[in-house]
Write a structure and sequence with these properties.
Elements lengths: L12 E7 L10 H17 L2 E8 L3 E8 L4 H35 L2
Antiparallel strand pairs: 1-3, 2-3
């Protein structure tokens, strides 16, 4: 069932929650948390918004954001897509190296 239309906040303040598919962990190391914060900072440099607070947990994120001129969906999309690309590429490389290790060490 599709999500309903997001209502525009009169104050411009939004509570945003992001989580992985099937509530899977999205942060597997400390560097993952740092990279997510990097994507928030990068997006802040390109967009006009303020982060009042955040909470990063292993399988989801809470953000409290005040938008100025840009739509909340565009801001969240920039943060989430950037981090998702990083996360997926990192996991793909780690999986490839593990398979390569198994091939070399165990002659599969």
């Amino acid at each position: 069932m599709p999500r309903g239309t997001r209502e525009k906040s009169e104050s411009g303040i939004y509570h945003v929650m992001l989580r992985g598919i099937d509530k899977m962990d999205i942060f597997l190391s400390n560097s993952d948390y740092e990279k997510f914060l990097y994507y928030i900072r990068e997006t802040m440099d390109k967009s006009n918004f303020v982060v009042y607070g955040y909470c990063l947990m292993t399988n989801h994120v809470h953000l409290l954001i005040k938008t100025e001129t840009e739509e909340i969906g565009d801001i969240v999309r920039r943060i989430a897509v950037g981090y998702a690309q990083y996360h997926n590429l990192k996991r793909c490389i780690e999986t490839f190296l593990l398979l390569l290790f198994m091939l070399v060490c165990f002659n599969f």
